[in-house]
Structure formats: C-alpha cells, structure tokens
Amino acid sequence: MFICVICGAKRKDMTLYPKLILDALATVRYPGTGKNLVEADMVADNIRIDGMSVSFSLTFEKPTDPFMKSMVKAAETAIHTYVSPEVQVTITTESRQAARPEPGKMLPQVKNVIAVSSGKGGVGKSTVAANLAVALAKLGYKVGLLDADIFGPSVPKMFQVEDARPYAELIDGRDLIVPIEKYGIKLLSIGFFVDPDQATLWRGAMASNALKQLVGDANWGELDYFVLDTPPGTSDIHLTLVQTLAITGAVIVSTPQQVALADARKGINMYTNDKVNVPILGLVENMSWFTPAELPENKYYLFGKEGAKQLAEQMNVPLLGQIPIVQSICENGDKGTPAALDENSITGRAFLELAENVVKQTELRNAGQAPTQVVELKK
Questions:
Q1: Which residues contact 35 (CB under 8 A, 6 or more apart)?
Q2: Does any domain span residue 60?
Q3: Are 26 and 124 in the same domain?
C-alpha cells in the first residue's frame, strides 16, 4: 500500500501522472533565485512516465551552473520522498545558453598566444608582460593581455584601471565578459572581480575555474597576440593554461642573478618537457643594469652581468632583450602608464626592441614548427 505524502491518501496501487511529479518538484528551491523548480520554469516540458519510471529534464541558465548537481539530487530525493521511493527517476540537464568551447577550440580568432613566465617572483615578469603588450600594440598589432596571476594580479594597477568593472553581454547565445580596453589593449584580470585589499584564498580547482572563465567566457574577438601574464614558478595555473589553450610560445623572464637563472632553467624545462611541449621564444633579461637619469651613459651591474645572455646561449634559445633599471619604470608602473608608451625613453626603446624580437621569433616558430597542441588530461 502506498501513502501519498502530499495529500495523505492511501492506495493499494499507484499511478504516476505529471502533476504528482510537479507537486514534488515544487518543494525544491533553487538557491540562485529562491524560487522552487516549477516557479523558476526549470522543469522542461518533457516529462515521460512509464509505469513506475519517470524521466524529465531540468533547465539551467548556463551549462556551468554551480547548483546543477545538487539540484538534480534534490529533485530525485523530492520525488522519492513525496511520491514514492519505488519510483525510478532519470533526470537530464540542459541549458539556455550555449556551452563554453572545448579546450583547444577556444579563441579561434586569436592568432598567437604568448605566455610570459618566470621561474621565481620578483624578477619583473608582470612589468615585462604589460610593456610587451603595449609595445606590440604600438607596432600596430591587435593585442589582448590576460592577468593569469590569480593570486597576485597587478594588471589593474599597472594600467590604472583599478576601478573598472567588466560587464557581460549576450553574444551568439552566451553571456561573455567584455574586456576593459586601455592603450589599445584588451585587458582582463581577476583583480577586477575581487577586493584588492583582501588576499585571494582559493584552492587550486577554484583558481583554475576562474582562469577558464577569463579565457573562455570573454569576448576577446580578433587578436594578433594574446599575452598571458602567468604566475611565478610552476603551478596548477600553468597546467590549466596548457590544458586549455594552444600556446604558441613562451617568453621566460629572469634577472642576471644566479639564483634567478637557476629557477629560469626550471621554467624552460616546464614548457619544453615531452608532456607539455610549448616552444620557448626566448629569454628576457630584466634589471640588466642600473642607469641613473642624470648619467644615461653609465651602467651599473647590480645583479651581475649578462647572466641571462649566457643562459640563453647554454639553453640554445634567443635572448629577446635586456631591460635596464631606470627609476621611471617603477614610477610609470605605479601611475598606470607603462614605460613602453614613451618610445624616446631608454626603457621604451628597450621594450619596443623586445616586441620586435618576439614578433620575429613567433614568425620563425610558426613557419618552422607545427601548431602547439593542448595538453590532454590523463584519466
């Protein structure tokens, strides 16, 4: 004998019908709106009943809805609780918006993806990435810059767009984030979405998912160069990038100091090992020497001389540029006016030369090597 929990009626046998199922689903509330599944119009009009079996779909706004799994489980539990535990429930999910493209198929309008990396922090990687993007734009290329340093974003500060808040617009059936534009460059950073005064305390999976959204759920459009400012060292974020994007090549930043060079070797190895196989476009030696503004011809080698140049020769990779320390490079970064904007300054000319060398090495790489493949997950 079955007892209907909703109406309290006792029956020797039970016949399922759609309203009985809908009444049970009306007891489940969707956290995103506070409405129940029926009120929220989340139960698709495809309920199928065959004896004691029922199947239907739940419709979500996005295929990445964080409540999807819990709602499916809650709906199944509601039917077992308010109808009968004997009911065999099959629930599928669908979404109103199109799904994010698969890894390797993202950003079809982007010609070259350049990862700017460093073996350790403090070598000026973000400064190099920002100024490289600016210099490429000054050369006439369409450029995007993604601040992939999830735990230490600096792009908003370096471009003076800390108060910017990107919005989403519906494009081809998907809500896509519209990047901020400054100096002719499209910019996105996790720094636009978090409190700048609070530490970002995220586990690896959460950080990786945030990065995938910035890559795959944004309207980057047509780009000649998509520059990635990656976190220092080697981490989950680097693995996420090579599993998500076909990276054209990597630019490794180091100072001439021996301890930095040792970590730069590890950075090179991370990209060139057989499992990743991303070409190295070259090395950038940052803080090569100090030049005081009042004595522009003088060079003081504070961290050693030509260490990155020697490493480039040993590793058989190009030296893309040597960037001197000038007081203005720090001041410009803090003011949000990258040094590369001024072509007449010492550092501006150095970054322009760097950009020209990156373009040259990218063209040589594309002419002589097959396109990079995304790293496949081993299950």
A1: 29
A2: yes
A3: no
Helix (H) or strand (E) holding 283: strand 280-290
Per-residue confidence band for 330, with pLDDT thresholds at 50, 70 and 90? low
Q: In sequence order, which ranges of the chain are alpha helices (DSSP H)?
A: 18-25, 68-82, 125-138, 155-158, 204-216, 236-244, 258-272, 307-315, 327-335, 346-368
User: CATH number of the domain that 118 lies in?
Assistant: 3.40.50.300
How many degrees, rounded to 5, is the angle at CA 273 between CA 366 and CA 309? 70
| Domain enclosing residue 87, as ranges | 18-95
In this predicted model, what pLDDT tens digit does every residue of 28-49 receive, in sequence order? 999 989 999 999 999 999 999 9
- Tell me the per-residue pLDDT of 111-148, one tens digit each, with 9 for 90 and over: 999 999 987 788 889 999 999 999 999 999 999 999 98
The span from the CA of 168 to the CA of 152, in Å, is 24
Tokens 């989403």 appear where? Answer: 168
pTM comes to 0.76
The span from the CA of 329 to the CA of 249, in Å, is 26
SS (H, E, C) 168-199: EEEECCEEEECCEEECCEEEEEHHHCCCCCCC
